[in-house]
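TICKET: design request
STATUS: open
ATTACHED STRUCTURE:
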C-alpha cells in the first residue's frame, strides 16, 4: 500500500521548504498573526477543554503549542455541549499593543436544539493570561476584529443572518467598543460573496486587512465540506462597496474534482506578511483518504503573490501534499516519538484535553500513594472515575490527545492494581471522534463470567459490537499495555503483556471516525483517549484506583498520495 512504500526523494527533499499540513491533526479555522518575528495561529476547539489552542512559530514551518485562551470555567461554559458545538472559529488581532481574540460559543447544536451562537472578545498582554469574555451585541459566527490604520476605529466583522425570520446568512459589520462589545456605529451588510445568496449560502470567516491603499475582505464560501473555498474582494473603504477579485475563488481544490485530489475543503484563510515582505495564507483543509478524513480539518499554509492588486495563492495551482515551498527549514518528518509519564503533579502535557468543562477533579498526576483499596505506589495518571463514559454528554474521567498522524501507534501502559474490577467498572483507551462514535479497548470485570477481561467495543452509528478475552488474573499486573494502531484505512485495537507480541482484538475502517450520524455534526477529528468509568454507576468506594503509567506515540512515514486513489 502507498503509505508503506518508502519514496527516496521524500527523504532527500530540499532543506529550504515548508510541507503541509503545518499543524497536523484536527486544527480547523486557523487564524494567523505575526507580531515582530513571531507567528501565532489560533484554531477551533469545539467541546474540548481547555479551549482555543494557540500555536507559535518563528519560521512558519515548525509550530509548537504555546497556550490556550480559555482555561477556566469562567472563560467558557460547556455543560452538556454535544459534538459539533462549543468554541468555534477564533481570530487573533493585535490592537494598541494588546492581543485580542474574537470567537463564538454555541452551547448546543443537535437535531433537537440549535441554540444561536454568541460572539465574544477577550484580550491578553502575552497570549497566556486572558481577560474574561466580553459578550458582543451582534450574534453570529466567525467574528474578527479589524482596526483601520487610517483613523484607529475598530470594526467587528462576522457571519450573521439578515434577521431572525428570513435567516439569510452573509457578512456583517459594525464599529465596536472593545470595552463593552456593543456596536457604536451602524450595523451593515458588507458582501454576500460569489455564490447564489439564498438560504443555503454560507459566507463565513471574514478577515479584513489593508494593502497598498485598498481594504481587502477575505471570506470563505460553500460550507465546510467539498465546496469550501476562499474568495476575496476589495474597496476604498472598510464599509465597501466591494469589488470581487477577477480570479475568484482564489483557493478551491474542489475545482479539480471532489474525489480526485487528496487535499480538499480548502478555505477559511487568513493572510500574513513576513518581515521580508513575503505573503502567506494559512487555511484549513482535509486530507481525504479513500473518500473520508479521519483527522478532520487540519492547518495548511501556502504562498501568496500579488498581481494587479489581487492575490494569487500557490501560483494558481492546486494544493498538493508532495509539494514544498518557502524559505524556511523543512519540518522533521516523521516527528520524534511522544512520551508522557505524567510524572509531575501539575498535570499532564498541555496537549491533553478533557471533554467539556470539568466541574470535579477526576484525575491526578505524579506519584500516587499506596491505598487500602488496591492501588500501588507509582508515577502516572490516576483517575477518579464517575458515572459518565465517553458516550455521555458530560465530563467523564478521561483525557484526550489529538491524533497527529495517519500512520502511527498509540500505546498506554496501565498502572498496576491489586484489586479487581466489576463488570461496570472499566479502564481503557479509545480512538475517539464523538460521544456517538468511539472505538474502545480496556479492562473490566468480565460480562456473564467471573474475573476480569480485556474487552473491545466498536460503535458504528448507534450499533455497538463488543468482544472480551479473559485476563486470567484477579489483579491488573504492571506489564499490561493497550495499543491502537492507526493506519490511513483502519484502526486496530489490541493489548500486550510484558514483552510478548500484541494481541489484536478488533479492527474498524478509519471512515467510521470521519463523519457524524444523520442530522448530527462533527467538526473535529479523531483523538486518542485515556479513560476510566463507572458506566452509569458511581465508582465503588472500595474499588481500586486505576490509571496509566505512561503513554507512547510512535509515528511512521505517511506517504499519502496527491490523488485519493487506494487499492
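STATUS: resolved
RESOLUTION: sequence designed for all positions
ATTACHED SEQUENCE:
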Amino acid at each position: 500500500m502507498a503509505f508503506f512504500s518508502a519514496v527516496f526523494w521524500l527523504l532527500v527533499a530540499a532543506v529550504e521548504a515548508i510541507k503541509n499540513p503545518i499543524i497536523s491533526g484536527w486544527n480547523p479555522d486557523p487564524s494567523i498573526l505575526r507580531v515582530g518575528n513571531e507567528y501565532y495561529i489560533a484554531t477551533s476547539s469545539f467541546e474540548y477543554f481547555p479551549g482555543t489552542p494557540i500555536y507559535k512559530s518563528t519560521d512558519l514551518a515548525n509550530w509548537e503549542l504555546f497556550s490556550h485562551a480559555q482555561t477556566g470555567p469562567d472563560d467558557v461554559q460547556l455543560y452538556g455541549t454535544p459534538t459539533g458545538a462549543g468554541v468555534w472559529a477564533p481570530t487573533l488581532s493585535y490592537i494598541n499593543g494588546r492581543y485580542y481574540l474574537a470567537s463564538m460559543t454555541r452551547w448546543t447544536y443537535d437535531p433537537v436544539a440549535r441554540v444561536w451562537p454568541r460572539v465574544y472578545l477577550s484580550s491578553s498582554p502575552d497570549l497566556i493570561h486572558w481577560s474574561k469574555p466580553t459578550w458582543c451585541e451582534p450574534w453570529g459566527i466567525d467574528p474578527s476584529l479589524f482596526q483601520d490604520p487610517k483613523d484607529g476605529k475598530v470594526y467587528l466583522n462576522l457571519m450573521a443572518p439578515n434577521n431572525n425570520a428570513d435567516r439569510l446568512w452573509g457578512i456583517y459589520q459594525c464599529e465596536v467598543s472593545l470595552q463593552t462589545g456593543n456596536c457604536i456605529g451602524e450595523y451593515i451588510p458588507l458582501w454576500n460573496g460569489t455564490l447564489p445568496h439564498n438560504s443555503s449560502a454560507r459566507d463565513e470567516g471574514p478577515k479584513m486587512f489593508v494593502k497598498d491603499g485598498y481594504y481587502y475582505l477575505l471570506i470563505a464560501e460553500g460550507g465546510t465540506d467539498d465546496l469550501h473555498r476562499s474568495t476575496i474582494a476589495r474597496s476604498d473603504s472598510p464599509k465597501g462597496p466591494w469589488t470581487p477579485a477577477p480570479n475568484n475563488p482564489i483557493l478551491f481544490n474542489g475545482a479539480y474534482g471532489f474525489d480526485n485530489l487528496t487535499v480538499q475543503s480548502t478555505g477559511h484563510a487568513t493572510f500574513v506578511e513576513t518581515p521580508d515582505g513575503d505573503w502567506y495564507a494559512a487555511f484549513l483543509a482535509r486530507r481525504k483518504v479513500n473518500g473520508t478524513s479521519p483527522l478532520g480539518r487540519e492547518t495548511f499554509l501556502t504562498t501568496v503573490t500579488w498581481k494587479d492588486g489581487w492575490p494569487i495563492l500557490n501560483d494558481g495551482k492546486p494544493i498538493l501534499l508532495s509539494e514544498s515551498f518557502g524559505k524556511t527549514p523543512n519540518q522533521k518528518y516523521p516527528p520524534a516519538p511522544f512520551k508522557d509519564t505524567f510524572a509531575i503533579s501539575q498535570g499532564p502535557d498541555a496537549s491533553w484535553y478533557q471533554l467539556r468543562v470539568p466541574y470535579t477533579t477526576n484525575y491526578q498526576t505524579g506519584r500516587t500513594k499506596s491505598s487500602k483499596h488496591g492501588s500501588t505506589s507509582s508515577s502516572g495518571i490516576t483517575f477518579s472515575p464517575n458515572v459518565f463514559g465517553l458516550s455521555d454528554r458530560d465530563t467523564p474521567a478521561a483525557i484526550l490527545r489529538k491524533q497527529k498522524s495517519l500512520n502511527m501507534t498509540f500505546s498506554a501502559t496501565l498502572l498496576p492494581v491489586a484489586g479487581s474490577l466489576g463488570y461496570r467498572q472499566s479502564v481503557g483507551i479509545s480512538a475517539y471522534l464523538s460521544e456517538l462514535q468511539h472505538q474502545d479497548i480496556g479492562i473490566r470485570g468480565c460480562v456473564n463470567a467471573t474475573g476480569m477481561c480485556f474487552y473491545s467495543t466498536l460503535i458504528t452509528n448507534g450499533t455497538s459490537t463488543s468482544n472480551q478475552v479473559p485476563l486470567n488474573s484477579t489483579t491488573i499486573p504492571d506489564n499490561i499495555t493497550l495499543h491502537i494502531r492507526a493506519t490511513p484505512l483502519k484502526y486496530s485495537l489490541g493489548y500486550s503483556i510484558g514483552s510478548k507480541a500484541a494481541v489484536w482484538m478488533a479492527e474498524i475502517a478509519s471512515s467510521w471516525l470521519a463523519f457524524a450520524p444523520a442530522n448530527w455534526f462533527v467538526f473535529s477529528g479523531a483523538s486518542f483517549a485515556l479513560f476510566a468509568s463507572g458506566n452509569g454507576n458511581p465508582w465503588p468506594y472500595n474499588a481500586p484506583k486505576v490509571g496509566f503509567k505512561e503513554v507512547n506515540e510512535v509515528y511512521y512515514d505517511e506517504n499519502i498520495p496527491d490523488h485519493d486513489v487506494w487499492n
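CLOSING REMARK: The chain has one helix and 38 strands. The mean pLDDT is 92.
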